[in-house]
Specification:
This protein is of the alpha/beta class and 260 residues long. The chain folds into two domains: 142 residues, NAD(P)-binding Rossmann-like Domain (Rossmann fold), CATH 3.40.50; 107 residues. Helices cover 54% and strands 14% of the residues. It has eleven helices and seven strands. The protein has a seven-stranded mixed beta sheet with strand order 2-1-3-4-5-6-7, with helices on both faces. Helix 5 links the parallel strand 6 and strand 7. Helix 3 packs parallel to helix 4. The longest helix has 28 residues. The mean pLDDT is 95.
């Protein structure tokens, strides 16, 4: 391929900055923009071969709708958000370009992608998918290819349920009127690790966590199941039914990790 011009909308912070830096280390020239830069999303979209949208989930579709019509048919439009169905649908609808949804399954603090998972949702591709695969695989990333719908179903469990569980723990501790520092002399290593996740979700990533839970179309049945399971646990605990709890735990352990 000729010299590839790459632009990252939202490339001055978070995963956008990480992705721009990653591509720069691979030898590509990368332009970035956000709401404070002189370069605008429209200016970037019209000048680049590859355009990557990396903005908060709630703003992603709006940005795609604004810049999608500006891309050339031979270009590639991508997004890096934690949800894929709505962004990919918008990219297909609002552009003539090739379209690939992308979700790195890690945060911007990582220094290397070696051994880490990156989900790709190819939606309309000809030449750009092999290029993207080769760039990621050369750096050691483990690529998972799936549909946007399957991605969101999996993320409802991997991220949505995880965030929901951690948020509820933080809410219960807050309502109990006990600060983490007061519990520190009594804490176990497992509790300390859990509290790190609770703090990460509540601060500083509160918007990301809220959007992961509220905007995933597959979160509703998980909320219903969570409520049902909690009610079942409440009955057993309040009855002091130790044997019932053991039977319940063993049942689900066998389903999750079958013997043999």
């Amino acid at each position: 391929m000729k010299q590839i011009r790459i632009g990252v909308i939202g490339g001055t912070r978070g995963m956008g900055r990480w992705f721009a830096g990653f591509l720069g280390k691979q030898g590509f020239t990368v332009a970035v923009c956000d709401e404070k830069t002189k370069l605008t999303p429209a200016g970037l979209a019209g000048a680049c071969d590859v355009v990557v949208v990396s903005v908060p989930i709630g703003k992603t579709v709006g940005i795609i709708e604004a810049i999608g019509p500006l891309l050339h048919q031979e270009s590639l439009l991508m997004d890096l958000t934690s949800l894929k169905t709505a962004p990919v649908e918008a990219m297909l609808k609002c552009s003539r370009s090739e379209v690939i949804g992308c979700h790195p399954l890690f945060g911007p603090q990582v220094r290397s992608v070696r051994g880490r998972h990156i989900v790709l949702c190819p939606a309309r591709t000809r030449r750009w998918l092999p290029w993207l695969r080769s760039v990621l695989q050369a750096a050691g990333a483990r690529i998972v290819e799936t549909t946007p719908e399957e991605h969101d179903r999996r993320m409802a469990l991997v991220q949505g349920l995880n965030h929901l569980n951690s948020l509820l723990m933080g809410m219960v501790l807050s309502e109990a009127g006990v600060r983490p520092a007061e519990l520190s002399p009594f804490s176990t290593p497992a509790f300390d690790e859990k509290m790190k996740l609770v703090k990460k979700i509540l601060r500083p990533h509160v918007r990301l966590s809220a959007e992961i839970m509220s905007l995933n179309p597959d979160i509703d049945p998980i909320l219903d199941r969570y409520e049902e399971m909690l009610s079942e646990l409440k009955i057993l605990v309040r009855k002091k039914d130790t044997d019932g709890l053991i039977a319940l735990m063993e049942h689900h352990a066998d389903r999750l990790w079958p013997a043999g």
